[in-house]
Backbone:
């Protein structure tokens, strides 16, 4: 099967957004063993879109159109494809019911352009949208299979994983099953991970490997095709063991939807430990991340956000002389912040963040300089120095993720 990806959106052409969807889709196709020699990007214009569809169908068996399924006037992908293949758009019952329920919940009257999101070409197979309103679709015309997918990544990625990939896999392997595992890594970049696994990637046949960049981390999907689940797992097990041998120190969990914070909270629950935090440059972002996890109150009672030196000294009972002599951005301060948070609460483990988010220097330290401290009952506190690249936002959220990973390592070492 030969595939071609068409990304639709003037904002992509203008450089306002990065075309990450095409990269994601290409990796999914590679993992399935589907070749793809061309990609196209076209703006929100029906005439030009029709032309690129004509080009794509002449050289591909599978044409995947991404974007342009929304309710605005420039969302023309579905209409253009339907006209191109000579089929009318019809309402999908499940999608319109979801749309009506959304309108009632939002107390909004559905307009005709809203209803277009629940339509698909006649006889097309719907692809359910788990988190949005625009239904996707698969349809065949003149021996070419067309796929319609939404543009927003939060809608696009689940639809690809849960709806499109299983259907394509079934077409390719009608006499086999497809078994995948998603391995999640933190603290290693995609290029470094690929370098460590280069021979496995270069020589892949069955099973296959594909890497994906997530928020400041890397995900690796390994996929095997076999006659049954046991046979597929027999292919995956040795590959996973070899991967873990090479880069296992960066591994933290399995699954598309698993987040690092979920793994940390689950480990705290398993060990029946309570955590607290003292944050300076992260300004509560670490605690807010914990708060996103359902049931976190079982292991987190609260913590401290201490920006100013006087607040650090007052809230955390820090030694003023240490702050003046060592500075805010220092190993000593990170350790004292973690220890202070621990002694001021009933927690079992505490983490601290102090550093320079940027863009300006602080105490002669460049932006991106971060100390993360950890303290546990009856143990000496530790602190680790990091230098994070990127914007102020990047530095703060890299610090949060790194703090979570450091905390997870400490919990595993302690247990």
Residues:
């Amino acid at each position: 099967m030969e595939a071609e990806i068409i990304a639709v959106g003037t904002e992509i052409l203008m450089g306002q957004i990065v075309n990450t969807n095409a990269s994601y889709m290409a990796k999914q196709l590679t993992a399935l063993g589907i070749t793809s020699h061309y990609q196209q990007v076209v703006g929100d214009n029906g005439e030009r879109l029709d032309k690129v569809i004509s080009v794509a169908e002449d050289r591909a068996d599978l044409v995947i159109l991404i974007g342009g399924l929304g309710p605005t006037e420039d969302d023309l992908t579905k209409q253009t494809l339907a006209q191109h293949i000579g089929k009318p758009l019809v309402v999908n019952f499940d999608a319109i019911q979801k749309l009506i329920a959304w309108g009632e919940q939002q107390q909004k009257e559905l307009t005709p352009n809203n209803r277009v999101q629940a339509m698909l070409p006649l006889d097309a197979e719907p692809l359910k949208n788990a988190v949005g309103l625009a239904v996707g679709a698969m349809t065949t015309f003149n021996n070419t299979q067309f796929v319609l997918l939404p543009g927003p990544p939060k809608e696009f990625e689940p639809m690809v994983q849960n709806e499109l990939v299983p259907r394509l896999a079934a077409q390719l392997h009608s006499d086999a099953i497809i078994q995948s595992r998603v391995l999640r890594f933190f603290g290693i970049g995609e290029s470094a991970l690929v370098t460590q696994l280069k021979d496995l990637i270069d020589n892949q046949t069955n099973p296959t490997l594909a890497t994906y960049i997530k928020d400041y981390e890397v995900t690796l999907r390994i996929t095997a095709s076999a006659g049954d689940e046991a046979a597929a797992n027999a292919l995956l097990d040795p590959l996973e063991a070899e991967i873990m041998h090479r880069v296992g120190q960066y591994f933290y969990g399995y699954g598309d939807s698993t987040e690092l914070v979920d793994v940390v909270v689950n480990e705290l629950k398993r060990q029946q430990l309570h955590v607290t935090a003292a944050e300076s440059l992260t300004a509560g972002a670490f605690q807010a991340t914990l708060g996103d996890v359902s049931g976190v109150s079982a292991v987190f009672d609260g913590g401290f956000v201490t920006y100013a030196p006087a607040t650090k000294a007052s809230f955390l009972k820090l030694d003023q002389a240490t702050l003046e002599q060592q500075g805010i951005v220092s190993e000593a301060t990170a350790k004292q912040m973690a220890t202070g948070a621990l002694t001021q609460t009933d927690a079992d483990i505490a983490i601290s963040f102090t550093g320079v988010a940027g863009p300006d220097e602080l105490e002669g330290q460049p932006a991106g300089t971060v100390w993360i401290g950890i303290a546990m009952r009856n143990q000496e506190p530790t602190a680790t120095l990091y230098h994070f690249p990127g914007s102020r936002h990047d530095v703060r959220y890299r610090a949060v993720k790194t703090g979570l990973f450091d905390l997870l390592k400490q919990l595993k070492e302690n247990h």
